[in-house]
Amino acid sequence: MGYVSAAPEPQPRATGQGEAPAGARRSLAAALLLGGAGAAVVLLASGRTWTEGRVAGPGGTVTLEAAGGDITGAPTALAVVGLAALVAVLAARGTGRRLVALLLALSGAGAAAAAVAGAYDRAALDEAAARATGDTAARAAALTQTAWPYVTAVAALLILAAGLLALRHGSSWPAMSGRYERDGGPGARSARRAADPERPEELWKALDRGEDPTDGT
User: Fold this and answer.
1) Which of 55, 82, 97, 141 has the most CB atoms around its CB within 10 Å?
2) Local mean pLDDT, 10-residue blocks, the chain (217 residues)
3) Backbone phi, then psi, for 194, in 5-degree steps?
């Protein structure tokens, strides 16, 4: 009588187990890159000349310039808020992370809107015209816009994109507090002490805490 050996049936290969972590890493890297680059460009572009004009003064025609920061401080302030939110979104969890991600997206949208509106704001040039001529009623003429306010707006949209990525994929991202609890929190330190009780420094620390290092319980 022959014996039939039952060969172990091949287990179905798990699919998609490594895809979610890889996708989370990609979306996290993309959000950090977009948000960081966008905020950096906004801060840089806000210091450049946004509008130019001329005014007729006693000594002839004077050329006027107004930087983005002279026209509106909103893009710079919102870019700083976006940077803070980009860091905070990693430390937050659950609903808090979604709220911070929403703040990140709104800061990008607000900075873009402020940049576009600032491109057509002539108040800063009019003030420059009044200073150049000494006449408070003087107004700048022949206004032109440079590309910098639009560069600022596009960069702000990168911050918005980072916020939208955080809203969409943030629930799968790791949290800094979670890594601390796994690697360096009090529980992990206690586990390391229990796993290596023969270290002299650990015996001294136990004595300092009033514990009996010879007690194995």
Assistant:
1) 82
2) 51 45 87 97 97 88 94 97 94 92 98 95 91 89 93 98 95 68 50 48 60 56
3) -70, -30
Three-state secondary structure string covering 149-180:
HHHHHHHHHHHHHHHHHHHHHHHHCCCHHHHH
Residue 4: DSSP 8-state: -
- The answer to whether 70 touches 52, Cβ cutoff 8 Å, is no
Strands (E), 68-106: none
Burial of 78 (0-12, 13-18, 19+ CB in 10 A): buried
CA distance 133 to 204: 79
Q: Which two tokens stand for residue 96?
A: 């808090």
Residues with Cβ within 8 Å of residue 152, at least 6 apart in sequence: 41, 42, 45, 46, 68, 75, 111, 112, 115
Distance CA 193, CA 182 (A): 15
User: What is the tens place of the pLDDT at every residue in 116-170?
Assistant: 999 999 999 999 999 988 888 889 998 999 999 999 999 999 999 999 999 999 9
- List of residues 6+ apart from 214 with CB closer than 8 A: none
